[in-house]
Amino acid sequence: MSNRYQEPSLYVDGQIIGRSNVGLHADNDNYFNGLADRYVPILYSPRLNGLDGRTIIRPFDGYIYLRADAMRFHWSFWAYAGSGATTTTIYIVDDNSNGYEADTLSLSAGNSSTAYGNVDLSSISGYTFSAGWHQVYLEVVKVSGDTGAYAQCWPPFCTYTSTDYTYPVPTYVYDGLLSRRRDFNKWRQADMYFWQCKPVNPAFLEIQYNLTNAASPFTIWDGFIRHYHEQIRYKLYCTNKTYEFYIIYDYGGSNETTEQIEFTSSETQEGTFDLPAGTFNFGETYRVAVRVVSGNGNVYSQNKVIYLFAAPKSGYEGHNPQTKTGDAEYFNVMADLSPGAYVYGNTTGYSQKLVNLTYNDVNLFERLCWNATVGRIDWAVRNDVTTYITPGTITLTHRLKRIYDTLYYRGTSVVMRWGDGQSKTLEDGAGTVDLRQVPDLLYGQQYYLEGSVDYAAEI
Amino acid sequence: MATTYTSTLQTYATAGTRYPKQKVIVDFTDLGFSASSLWTDISSDVISIRGEQRALGMGKSLAALGRGVSSSCSITLRNPEDTGSYSGLRYSPSNPSSSLYAYIGDGQIHMKRARVELGFSDSTGASIVRVPAITGYIVASPERYKDRQITLEIRDRGSAATFVRDTTAVYTDVKPKTYMEALAAYLTPDAVATADQVFDDGMQAIAYAWLDDETAWEEMGIVAESQCGRVWFDNDGDLHFDDGTHFVRATSSTYDDPTTSQFTFSTDDFNSLDPTYDYRSIWNDITVEYQPRYEAESQTIYTGTETIMIPPAVTFGTYRTKAIRCDFRYPVVGTPSSTITATNAAGTTVSVTEGIAEALSTYYATNLRNSSNKYAAYVVQFELTGTPLLTEQSNTYNTTDATSIDTYGRRTWRVRNPYIQTYRHAQMVGDLLLARFKDPVQFVRLSGVRGVPWLEVGDRITITETLTGIDEDYFITELAWSWSVTGGYIQDITAVRASDLFPYSDYFVVATSTYGNGSGANDGRLFW
Predict the structure, then answer these.
(1) Boundary-marking domain end, from B358, B391, B424
(2) What is the pLDDT of chain B when averaged over all its residues?
(3) A399-456 confidence digits (pLDDT tens)
(4) Using the beta-carbon criterion (under 8 Å), do B173 and A432 form an inter-chain contact?
(5) What's the longest Cα–Cα distance across chain A?
(6) Which pLDDT score, from 0 to 100, does residue A197 have?
(7) Could you say which of B120, B140, B157 is where a domain stops?
């Protein structure tokens, strides 16, 4: 358990309530509120062409951390066969290294299609999926012909399906109401449910894309986000002072929103922009692309997308991303209570009202649990392999913004870097890093992994 | 809390003329606490009894009313010459001709179970009502040969519990009551029956708790203190864990209700009343350390460094075993998994299995088994994988009272308790202690009290005396009593003013209090 969350004890009739009890729920809610407002990395998953001269490509190749309480595997991908015929299949590899074919698209020349679905991995005959990391990949295989095939994979994920912990509807306590143990136990149960709903914190795939003679505009970064916050925070780098970057939200969709970033020197640009309010739907997946635009002919530059995060708009911290009114809209930061005060709140300060625990649970249920429809999402994390055909050279780096205490990774020659030139060499293979033991790496601070990395995520 | 008593006893105890009675029984034949009705009655040899019960650490403990209760008494007995086929002094452990020699000889009297009961009878002596005054063990038996007397020193059941050391698994997010129940199982030689365990839930769950070759009794004291409470054996021999809310929480049993006064003392009931204020026990700058712990990722927690040889089984179908014990550097949560690689002398891999393993917080003990009846097995690899429990940087919660510091000077107390592991817990303890100790509290000592046998330390009593202006409730912190044939039954009682410990009496009780801001009759206040 984390020292930032503490499991409350079961309440019983006759128990005396202290500040330590109420304060514990307030502390837990504050912790979950922070998690709900976390910066959400936009996940890299480019639309790949490149069957030219090849028989197989993998537009997505990564790993997913399976947990016993979240074994429902979701996928979604799109493929276009080009002038040849292709089969496009998404696989997840079981304990015995057998790839389970979750879905396949067989396309003849000139056709495109989308496949999506989900399956309970715990009940697939002939396959065993235990808790832990499992490879997941989308593979395009040439059947005939050899040009113009494309495919793109929405990052796969698993969702929380356990019934061990469920969200209770908390009690709206009011002046004069006789207390019941269930009132307090519902606040307890909500805390315990939210604790189970802590999402995986996947790495952002930072890209360095060195282009020479690429057609302008050129997409250097391509991925997806399950819509959440309404602000995008970016950090970009370009060596050419006459170029522009476009960050396009809902790229290719009906509500394309473009932020234009101009480079006036070889420089790093760091900033934010807000998405139009109410335009995008909470929980829906949108494609996000970063395109580089040359001011003069083809593109010749070294380009970096260092990070892209979705974050709460300024002044909207603790707000429900949906247009909501009432209890679900705001998170009410509770003031600390005083021993001797009436439990319900004997001051004029609304922030000390006990019913805030209920308001906040309602709010958190919407924000932390994806509009109260999905308890938790465990995302797959892509590897940093870039062997596909491009007009330039690509380097991918796993970058994380710390919100938890344990980093899971797998790779070789991995060096973790953070802060002011601080670094730590990690052991080859699969491992974990206790981030509490990493000096000066504070919550919210960014760090990245150099080397060959198969996956990196905080859990 | 107060020993269960009847209205008859109450009537006899408050009568103008009283007829005190005692009963002393000893478990010479080791029948156990549950068979006390069969113990040997030695009341007829009793000359006098003096007893004492006191709260421990009233001046400086994390508990509102002491971290525990110590009870003891001395029984002075006639030591008559045995008769019939026996001879010599009956209670002398050195006398091989005594009728009791088989039970008390050669020091066997030490730790014999014993109980003292006190009460009254009616004027005829036909109706006698008593309640236990102490249940425990005989810890010493000095003799006075010249006077033909022997004294039995009795301590409460905690005196045996102090010697028992053991190790447990790591308990996570455990309710103090649950951990106390687990610890109670380690109290030997006399396990405390479940029915004799009277435990509060505790105020704060404990993230991680474990016993590491420590005494269970001491551990229970540490746990109790972390809950601002106490652990103690009452006069009946029942084991109690009272958390910090205990003394303001009503219970359905009148005798056990700390919010109900168990006796009202007025001037007719005592010889002397001496109020005092405890200026020594003032603490107005309190720092509480708390040490968060966390479970590290699963990792190798033990690697055997020596090849372990297990001889072949003597006969086919059996196996030979070798016991090993692996000590951990850090406590381990849960059960580790083992990896065993073994070969025979020819270098061929062979199977070595484990017998019943004992996985505890700080070590793993198992039996490695070789089922071959031809070859010895050489275990070349023995590894354990598990989840170590690590400690984060300790933090502190500090709380002060400026008025008290101005008045009495700064008096600093740094509190350390391994089971205070979170900020909220440290805050609860620190602020409760500050409220409890920032000002001198009032004690009252009542001397020459007409004995009230059902009272125990921690009981709420009412004292009324007009000249000192005292007319309110107190909690008993110390109780001394004596009984003798000639002197009757009297007590000296020391008690602390209830309002000095708990400023309110309307704390919020789940399922009893209403939510409200004080305008409702049952609106409740926050405890610490």
Answers:
(1) B391
(2) 94
(3) 999 999 999 999 999 999 999 999 999 999 999 999 998 999 999 999 999 999 999 9
(4) no
(5) 80
(6) 94
(7) B157
Residue B139 shares a structural domain with residue B16: yes
Shared domain check, A230 and A147: no
Number of domains observed in the structure of chain A: 4
Range of the domain at A294: 202-314+384-401
pLDDT (tens digit, 9 = 90+) per residue, A165-199? Answer: 999 999 999 999 999 999 999 999 999 999 999 98
Say how many CB pairs under 8 Å bridge A and B: 161
Q: Is B524 a domain residue?
A: no
Examine the pLDDT at B129 and tell me if it is beyond 90: yes
CA torsion, points B7, B10, B14, B17, in degrees to nearest 10?
90
Contact A179 B245 (CB under 8 A): no
Distance CA A253, CA A395 (A): 28
For residue A377, being part of any structural domain is answered with no
Asked if A436 and B294 count as a contact pair (C-beta separation under 8 A), the reply is yes
B86/A193 Cα distance (integer angstroms):
73
Pairing of strands A56-66, A43-44: unpaired
Distance of CA A197 to the CA centre of its chain: 13
| Residue A218, in any domain of the structure | yes
What is the structure's pLDDT at B282?
95
Q: What is the ipTM of this complex?
A: 0.88
Question: Is omega for the bond preceding A217 within 30 degrees of 0, making it cis?
Answer: yes
DSSP H or E run through B376: none
Rounded Cα–Cα distance for residues A77 and A103 (Å): 9
CATH number of domain containing A54: 2.60.120.200
> Cβ of B513 and A343 within 8 Å?
yes
Residue B413, in any domain of the structure? yes
Per-residue DSSP letter, B44: G
Contact B75, B140 (CB under 8 A): no
What is the least distance, in Å, from the CA of B10 to any CA of chain A? 29
B194-218 exposure pattern, b = at least 16 Cβ within 10 A, e = fewer: eebbebbbbbbbbbbbbbbebbbbe
**Chain A touched by B40 (CB under 8 Å):** no
Is A126 a domain residue?
yes
Cis amide bond preceding B258, omega within 30: no
Question: Structure tokens of A224?
Answer: 């997806």
Nearest to B207 among A1, A177, A436 (CB): A1
Q: Looking at the partner chain, which of A21, A184, A343 has a beta carbon nearest the beta carbon of B525?
A: A343
Cβ separation B201–A15 shorter than 8 A: yes
C-beta atoms of A18 and B509 within 8 A? no
- pLDDT value of position B1: 65
Cβ within 8 Å, pair A22-B526: yes
| CA triple B122-B128-B129, angle to 5 deg | 110
pTM score, two decimals? Answer: 0.90
Task: Quote the CA–CA distance of B94 and B369 in Å, as a whole number.
Answer: 50
Residue B190 lies in a domain: no
